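User: I've been trying to design a sequence by hand for this structure and keep getting stuck. Would you show me what you'd pick, starting by listing the structure so we're on the same page?

Assistant: Good idea, let's start from the same input. This is the structure you sent:
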């Protein structure tokens, strides 16, 4: 059965630690219940690990469905992996690496869940994206609750986007290649260590806030080049370690603080460099079927 919590707070449900509370909150405990909710609720917002999502301050009027209890994970000896949307990304990476299956080790250190990693086509650079290893997807259309299975090569993958608005990830199937366990573990640790040294993981954040603008340019380097490290609005601050992170260092920021700071960073970077940064994080909005990256 699903849990309906009267007053959960988005500050506890998201890694940025900001936002108000949902008017309705559901945690389905099975894929059947998840599909029933999708078929019966009007305009639900699907929440995975909450690692790249910013909710507004105050009450959020759309019903929120959490995937965190959809945790089934199966790994077969032939390299096939089945994972439901709520499986944590770090769990599936460690399990596959320990099973001697290669492909996900370069994603080590990326937070979130399988559902979010699929919808965001999570990755470390263009050659290490989640979509590259996705053989099948089991997706649901909100409003109908009907499950459809599609091949991974039918998905119009984009940089940090699976480009399938209006669909919800229920589960995925991966096809990974056998590898030497010690080498895979070494590679996994390399990526984990690199992130811990270069990213402000000790502070509340939503990961990288802006997309890289292309042309081989890094959003973080553009922001740093504009001398914006340490810039703050309210409790939100541009990280002094990695300029593409906004941190809620003292956990005193509001959602509005984050938005105001992002707008100021965007304005200054465009004025100084001519590049218009686009957000990589998702801003949840009331009364919209699809989420928007605008703020």
């Amino acid at each position: 059965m699903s849990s309906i919590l009267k007053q959960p707070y988005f500050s506890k449900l998201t890694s940025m630690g900001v936002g108000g509370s949902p008017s309705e909150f559901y945690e389905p405990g099975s894929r059947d219940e998840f599909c029933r909710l999708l078929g019966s609720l009007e305009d639900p917002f699907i929440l995975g690990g909450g690692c790249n999502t910013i909710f507004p301050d105050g009450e959020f009027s759309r019903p929120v469905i959490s995937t965190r209890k959809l945790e089934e994970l199966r790994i077969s000896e032939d390299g096939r992996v089945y994972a439901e949307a709520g499986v944590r990304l770090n769990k599936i990476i460690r399990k596959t690496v320990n099973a001697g299956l290669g492909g996900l080790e370069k994603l080590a250190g990326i937070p979130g869940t399988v559902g979010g990693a699929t919808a965001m086509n999570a990755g470390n650079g263009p050659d290490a994206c989640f979509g590259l290893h996705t053989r099948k997807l089991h997706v649901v259309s909100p409003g109908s609750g009907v499950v459809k299975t599609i091949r991974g090569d039918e998905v119009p993958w984009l940089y940090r986007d699976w480009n399938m608005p209006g669909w919800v990830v229920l589960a995925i199937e991966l096809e990974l290649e056998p590898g030497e366990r010690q080498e895979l573990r070494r590679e996994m640790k390399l990526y984990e260590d690199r992130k811990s040294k270069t990213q402000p993981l000790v502070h509340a954040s939503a990961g990288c806030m802006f997309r890289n603008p292309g042309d081989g340019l890094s959003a973080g380097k553009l922001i740093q080049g504009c001398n914006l490290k340490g810039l703050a609005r309210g409790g939100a601050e541009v990280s002094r370690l990695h300029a593409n992170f906004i941190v809620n260092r003292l956990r005193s920021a509001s959602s509005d603080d984050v938005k105001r700071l992002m707008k100021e960073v965007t304005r200054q970077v465009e004025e100084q460099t001519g590049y218009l940064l686009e957000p990589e994080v998702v801003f949840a909005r009331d009364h919209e079927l699809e989420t928007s990256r605008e703020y």
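That's my pick for every position. To get oriented when you compare it with your attempt: The first strand starts at residue 3 and ends at 4. Residues 255-273 form the longest helix (19 residues).
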